[in-house]
Known about the structure:
Strand content: 35-45%
Radius of gyration: 18 Å
Strand order of the largest sheet: 1-3-4-5-2-7-10-9-8-6
Amino acid sequence: MYxxxxxxxxxxxxxxxxxKLVSALDIMQDCDFFWMESEQEFTNHLIDNGLGMFxxxxxxxxxxxxxxxxxxxxxxxxxxxxxFLGLRNTALYDEAGETCVRTYGVGAFVNHAxxxxxxxxxxxxxxVTIDPKIDMPYLDRRIYLPEQxxxxxxxxxxxxxxxxxxxxxxxARYLEAVMDGLPQDYPFDRVRIEYKKAAKLGDVLHVGxxxxxxxxxxxxxxxxxxxxxxxxxxxxxxxxx
Length: 241
């Protein structure tokens, strides 16, 4: 478990003074990275062996987005670490300790040089502090698009400041890239994201959208050959979730 603290600033809010979803994801991602400092054996193994942890999927449940000036905290919890995969919860809390945003993500250990998934040795994974899973629905990490025609909305070029320390497009920037693809005033409080291929500097991302008959909105970033980089599902949580 690792916790960071922040205060919602003007650059992180929308026109209503509410924390942007992308900014909330930035806060939680920073907490994920800072967590590594608390697990030195795990971090040293990644550095010594040229490995990185690459996100494969993420589910984001939005209970409430804080407003400008609020004090918030983010906490990350590793609830499974074995073989090729690490699974974590990261949550954003308000000053009263109430959950604002809850997530779960699946990451793979990947060799930077080869791009191949790499198994973590048992002694290294055993040294990682394991926390209980937080209480939330855990939906399938894979997203299956409905059999409908996809509307093409335009294209986005990956810029230098989209690139992070892993030398590809930062995970939060994919979400930022598709937010304008949502219909105006589209209601949602859950986002599922499946990361399929890392976008790099100079890549052109083609934005596609499917409005499903059940009201869900699917957005996809793909290359010119229609191979997806990332797939998104925007929906509303069921009552009681």
